[in-house]
Amino acid sequence: MTMVPIPGTLNFVATQRFYPGFNSSQCRIVKEIFNGTNWDQTVVGDFPYIHRFDLISHDGGLWFVGCSIANSKKNTDDWSDPGRIWVGDYDDREAKVNNLKQLDFELTKNHGYKRMDGYSLITGAQGIYRLDYPDSNGDWKLTRLVDRETSDIASADLNDNGKPEYLAIEGFHGPYIRIYDCNFNTIFKSGSDSPFGHAIWGGRIGSKQYFIFGFRSERQNLELIGFEDGKPKFNLIESNVGPSNVLVYGKEGVQYLLSANREANQVAIYKILNTD
């Protein structure tokens, strides 16, 4: 569910044993070390139901942030035991998390996470939260920004005003999308026409910034969202593919869209030719 590169290396940490239907009581985090030919694995620790996690660089090393989708589950539809937000210190030499603790907060149906500049955004049934990192004067701080159930979130300067806009999938795997301005005022809200919204990305393509969004039911579209004449503009990339994850990647001056087109059983690479 999550892969995080370790800064300055080819190594990464990732979730393992998080299975469909949220069958993840045996979920763990592993470290993969590149040995020049393939990968050697070390188990960092057991982290049941951890859906999203991150490593945050700071002067003293790396902080760990982990979000569990639930604390326990009797079946796929059981949400009676909410998830948690875990924080700690990641020791890369020992490949373990020290000083692990849970914040005094319960988060139901966590699905989204976005690292920003100096803080992170975390989403769930209770809304969108801002997690501020510790400083010399205080501990971790959690602030609710939006009280609408939100599945995932991405950011991009869509209208080129120097401030981020946010694309949110609304409802758990929701049928809606909502675009917010930098203060989380609504710019746009869709109808219920993107069921099982799942793939989300924001960033620069060519000279402009865009969102990419995909949903896994009905039309199963993969879409590009830009900004034109003061409002969002939607362009269809491909239909009937049902993407689960997307990423834009650049190599040797060329950008590519990588998409896990789950419902079409494809790992697709789209070469981006026209960037304006």
Name the overall outline. Answer: globular
Tally of strands: 23
Q: What is the average of the pLDDT values?
A: 96
Number of helices: 0
Q: State the major sheet.
A: 4 strands, antiparallel
Query: What's the arrangement of strands in the largest beta sheet?
Result: 1-2-3-4
Structural class: mainly beta
Question: SSE string, helix = H, strand = E?
Answer: EEEEEEEEEEEEEEEEEEEEEEE
**Termini distance?**
32 Å
| Rg from Cα | 19 Å
Roughly what percent helix? under 10%
Strand content: over 45%
List unreliable stretches of 5+ residues: none
Describe the structure.
The chain is mostly beta strands and 276 residues long. Helix content is 0%, strand content 58%. The chain has no helices and 23 strands. It has strands spanning 3-5, 12-16, 28-34, 39-46, 50-58, 61-68, 83-91, 96-107, 113-115, 119-124, 127-132, 141-146, 150-156, 165-170, 176-180, 186-189, 197-205, 208-215, 222-228, 231-238, 243-251, 254-261, 266-271. The strands form 6 sheets. The protein has a 4-stranded antiparallel beta sheet, with no helix packed on it. It has a 4-stranded antiparallel beta sheet with strand order 5-6-7-8, with no helix packed on it. Strands 9-10-11-12 form a 4-stranded antiparallel beta sheet, with no helix packed on it. A hairpin with an 8-residue loop joins strand 11 (127-132) and strand 12 (141-146). It starts with a strand and ends in a 5-residue tail after the last strand.
